[in-house]
Amino acid sequence: MGMENAEFRYLVVERDEEGIAVLRLNRPEARNALNLELIAELGRAADMLARDDTVRAVIVTGGEEVFAAGGDIKEMAGKYAPDMLNAYGADLSGFEKIERIPKPVIAAVSGYALGGGCELALVCDMIVASETAVFGMPEITLGIIPGAGGTQRLPRLVGPHRAKEMIFTGSFFDVHACREMGLVNSVVPVERLMEEAKELARRCIRNGAVALACAKACVNEGMNTDLYTGLAYERKCFSLLFSTEDQKEGMQAFIEKRKPAFKGR
Ligand code: HXC
Hints:
Layout: E1 11-15, E2 20-25, H1 36-51, E3 57-61, H2 73-76, H3 81-91, H4 93-99, E4 105-109, E5 112-114, H5 116-122, E6 126-130, E7 134-136, H6 150-158, H7 160-169, E8 172-174, H8 175-180, E9 186-188, H9 193-205, H10 209-223, H11 227-240, H12 245-255
Parallel strand pairs: 2-3, 3-4, 4-6, 5-7, 6-9
Antiparallel strand pairs: 1-2, 7-8
Helix pairs in contact: 1-4, 6-7, 10-11
Bound molecules: hexanoyl-coenzyme A.
């Protein structure tokens, strides 16, 4: 287990011997509301986990009670536009740093994932949810709109009509509705949540780390560009993987009818 928690006030980071790191929001008195300090800590943790070669996959969670109730309304209430542009505008890169970790990142969501909390789940590669999970973008009910990717990542994931329903009404959606709209990968009882997330992580990281990083980059870059630019990017990554030991090992193992032993290089 990792010991780097001393540097975080609102996060707990644990690493196990399988190479799966768990990043847990820990601000229970405010339903894990994301204040500037917590968002900055997310960015620092993302940098740390991205660099750490012993970490093969990351699970982002808020624990069993609540994922995150969104941006810290009490912190934001008295702010004006320049404050938001300067402070939040810069610090929201913490979310992008999580999105850019070149390893599988899985959100394990239980309870409310609202506003910035929902947006945090959206920067993860996949979302595993408990039966108690509730997603929503209630910003409109506060006189604002989603500000950490909700108007951009949500429609790319579930389509513009469903995203607009969530964003325009501010309504909460139960986990089954979210599963149906493709927001959530799987739904399990709350006591199975972390094991389900770890199992999904294991199914990813038994594959080679370089191929995983390329696969993630291709999907993420491709979602942000036109088809032919994305295809060109994919072609380069695909070809470059033929310079890795893992490609030689993977194909040789198939031919020899054995399991591959990937090294991540
Ligand atoms: C600050 C919050 C908070 C939030 C809860 N709390 N959510 N504080 N910001 N987003 C605090 C409450 O004020 C309260 O503090 C304590 O946490 C417990 O909350 P309750 O409301 O009593 O709990 P409960 O009845 O269980 O209801 C949970 C809830 C509700 C449904 C999640 O708290 C809620 O609706 N929260 C706001 C959700 C929201 O609107 N999110 C969007 C935020 S804007 P006290 O001191 O009374 O104990 C946004 C944009 C961000 O996300 C963009 C950048 C990240």
